[in-house]
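Title: Comparing notes on inverse folding

I've been comparing how different people in this forum approach sequence design from structure. To keep things fair, I'm posting one structure and asking everyone to reply with a full sequence. Here's the target:
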């Protein structure tokens, strides 16, 4: 009996691990699929733009880059998608209203950012270099902004169209209550990163809050275009070496963590399941040896190989099934906690857990059945001579 309990515990652990690995793998695939909302394979990012010697030449750099044959657009911003930056601004519907304050995620960008990243407008317009209040200047009392749909909801404006030309205010510690005027609304997207919930976003155009560039490349050889980008950089900013990489690499900085974690879990799951199956096989051999004479008698009385194999397999179903009854609820709880880390999740994990549990049971039954069939096919005369 103690052996059965130990095998059951081993099997519960392996079924739990197998279920978790399945959930993590499917969620990883969901993360990868969701990331293509941005053209990450077409964006080449340029870092170190916050350096004074670089920032003052950004207009020239943009002109040089957009003159290249396969460069579609160039924009500058404080961050790009998938980066885990969380810069916020505290805003209110009424000036100085501490009680009604809300935190919005801030993304400072040049007007081309939305186009570069294929972020559509739901209502209104984007920001422009040609409109005075679209650019943040020191001491400005009014600033035109773009917000996302979640920010519209938080502010209580009802719809994207209804939010256009509405006002809200920056709540700052120095008492300056800048008035924000909404000129555009974009969809809610998970810009910040894969582990973050979607946030209300406030997009502003402030040339002083810039640190990274985004170059959209379409057509031609990517590597040739990157070489041309580097040449353009060297012409405009020769004293600072260019630091660039594709947005795919920015995404993979985070995504690789998920992949390696799943690979490690899969390794542990394989070891746990292998140990459980070896234990089941050993227990089957031990119990079959103790019932050798009974098996011989059943064969003599006409029992078929299938009937005897089914009898032996059924004996091991009890520890396997109670182990499953423990493992699946535990895996459901653990996987639900894991999925809460992501803004975009797979649906209910229940079906995946049931399939993983069924696979574990089939492997267990197959292991025991292989031994049971060999025993059942043995010559009954040998069994009757046992002891």
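Reply #1:
Here's my take.
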């Amino acid at each position: 009996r103690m052996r059965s309990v130990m095998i059951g515990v081993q099997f519960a652990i392996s079924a739990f691990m197998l279920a978790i690995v399945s959930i993590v793998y499917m969620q990883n695939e969901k993360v990868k699929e969701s990331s293509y909302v941005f053209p990450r394979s077409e964006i080449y990012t340029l870092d170190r733009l916050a350096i004074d010697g670089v920032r003052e030449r950004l207009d020239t750099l943009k002109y040089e880059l957009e003159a290249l044959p396969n460069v579609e657009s160039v924009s500058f911003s404080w961050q790009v998608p998938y980066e885990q930056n969380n810069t916020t601004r505290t805003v209110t519907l009424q000036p100085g209203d501490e009680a009604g304050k809300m935190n919005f995620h801030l993304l400072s960008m040049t007007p081309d950012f939305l186009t570069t990243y294929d972020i559509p407008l739901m209502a209104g317009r984007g920001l422009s270099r040609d409109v005075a209040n679209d650019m943040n200047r020191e001491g400005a009392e009014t600033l035109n902004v773009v917000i996302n749909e979640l920010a519209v909801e938080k502010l209580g404006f009802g719809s994207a169209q209804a939010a256009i030309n509405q006002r809200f205010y920056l709540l700052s510690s120095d008492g300056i209550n800048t008035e924000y005027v909404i000129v555009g609304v974009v969809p809610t997207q998970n810009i910040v990163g894969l582990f973050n919930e979607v946030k209300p976003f406030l997009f502003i155009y402030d040339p002083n809050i810039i640190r990274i560039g985004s170059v959209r490349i379409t057509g031609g050889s990517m590597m040739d275009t990157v070489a041309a980008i580097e040449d353009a950089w060297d012409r405009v900013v020769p004293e600072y070496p260019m630091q660039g990489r594709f947005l795919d690499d920015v995404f993979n900085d985070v995504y690789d963590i998920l992949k390696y974690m799943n690979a490690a879990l899969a390794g542990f799951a394989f070891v746990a399941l292998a140990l459980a199956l070896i234990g089941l096989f050993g227990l089957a051999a031990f119990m079959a040896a103790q019932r050798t004479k009974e098996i011989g008698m059943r064969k003599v009385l006409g029992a078929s190989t299938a009937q005897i194999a089914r009898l032996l397999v059924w004996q091991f179903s009890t520890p396997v099934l109670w182990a499953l009854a423990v493992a699946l609820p535990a895996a459901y709880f653990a996987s639900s906690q894991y999925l809460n880390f992501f803004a975009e999740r797979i649906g209910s994990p229940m079906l995946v857990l049931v399939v993983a549990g069924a696979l574990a049971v089939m492997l267990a039954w197959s292991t025991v059945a292989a031994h049971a069939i060999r025993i059942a096919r043995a010559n009954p005369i040998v069994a009757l001579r046992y002891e």
